[in-house]
Amino acid sequence: MKQGLAAGTTAIVMALQPALVAALSPLVGEARGRPVMWVGLALGFTGVAVSVFDRTNAVPFTAGLLAVSGLFGLIAATLLEKLHGRRSDPVLGGAVQYVIGFAVLLPIAFATETMEVTWHPELIVSLAYLVVANSLISISLYVALVQRGAATRVSTLLYLVTPLAIALAWLILGEPVTWRVAAGFALCLAGVLIVRQSKN
Asked: In principle, which of 20, 87, 90, 99 could form an S-S bond with 140, CB 3.0–4.6 Å?
């Protein structure tokens, strides 16, 4: 976002994850999806695109490269979790990831940021939410779900992130919800349900 990428554009890039996981999951021993599964994946992606269509702007090259790198990082992590076939502790695994991520990103932060922080209650609450709910709890749940289910089925749940985030922005911040958002949410939900049923 600092490089100029809109949140909506980021959401569309990340929404490619379930389809790419579905396409690559046979490489880690999962069955190839049935045609109806691809219909669900397409509906989910369309739902995300519809939800953020009017929020999207041009993509700066560096920002787009970072977003695509994040996308393929999540895809690789999902497939590797299925490939090794062992159920590692999601909390311990997450802690290891964050320690390594900290070690890699700290010098980048020193090189690109002022390293000055103005502490205030809103920042503390936001950081606490990002660390506890958005990182520790959500990533641990995601890894646990991937370990116990098909990678494609779990990945499609990410389609619901964008419309739910927009709904929460309406509830908490008072941002308007347009017909596009409502239609996008319906498409995302339909896509997730179709993919989950196609694996039964």
From this structure: 90
